[in-house]
Amino acid sequence: MQLVFATNNLNKLKEVQALIPDHIQLLSLKDIGCFEDVPETQMTIEGNAIQKAVYIKDHYGYDCFADDTGLEVEALNGEPGVFSARYAGESRDANNNMDLLLNNLKEKPDRTAQFKTVIALDLNGKLETFTGICKGAITTTKQGNKGFGYDPIFKAEGYDKTFAEISLEEKNKIGHRGKAVRLLVNFLNQL
Question: Which residue among the candidates 67, 68, 122, 151 is catalytic per the annotation?
Answer without folding.
Answer: 68
